[in-house]
Write a structure and sequence with these properties.
The structure is a single chain. The protein has 142 residues and is of the alpha+beta class. It has a single domain, classed as HIT family, subunit A (2-Layer Sandwich). It has three helices and five strands. Helix 2 packs across helix 3.
Length: 142
């Protein structure tokens, strides 16, 4: 066990930091097929949701709802999927994915469907800037 938070190497390799919420890093998954954000509570040694304190569970829930609302508003989604799997990356993290009826995995889950399509530099930069501005504004109300 450690007293300092560090991001799991796989999450660091697959994502870019968008911003920080009250509890979590909010990361953009490098897969242009889906508007896909990941929240990682900035607490050491978390694996399962119940490892969080009661206050942190509430905060993570509020952050997740905020991120979901931002994705729905920004991308006019049919659905947002929220999941905490942790089977491949044991560090506690929460996926929030904007879904569309014409996306490659619809109506099933996104995991294991096709290959990730990394953002090109311009699209990735634009997506990051837009989501950063949206989330910074939204988190002011938490």
């Amino acid at each position: 066990m450690s007293n300092t938070f560090s991001l799991h190497p796989q999450l660091a390799a697959d994502t870019t930091l968008v911003t920080d919420g009250p509890l979590s890093h909010v990361l953009l998954m490098n897969d242009a097929r889906y508007p896909w954000l990941i929240l990682v509570p900035k607490r050491p040694d978390l694996v399962n949701f119940d490892d969080l304190s009661a206050d942190d569970r509430k905060t993570l829930g509020d952050e997740t709802a905020t991120v979901s609302a931002v994705l729905k508003r920004r991308f006019d989604t049919q659905k947002t999927n929220v999941a905490m799997l942790g089977n491949m990356v044991p560090q506690l993290h929460c996926h929030v994915v904007a879904r569309f009826t014409d996306d490659p995995a619809w109506p099933g889950p996104i995991w294991g469907v096709g290959e990730a399509q990394p953002y090109d530099e311009e699209t990735g930069r634009d997506r990051l800037a837009t989501l950063r501005a949206d989330l910074i504004s939204a988190f002011k109300h938490l």
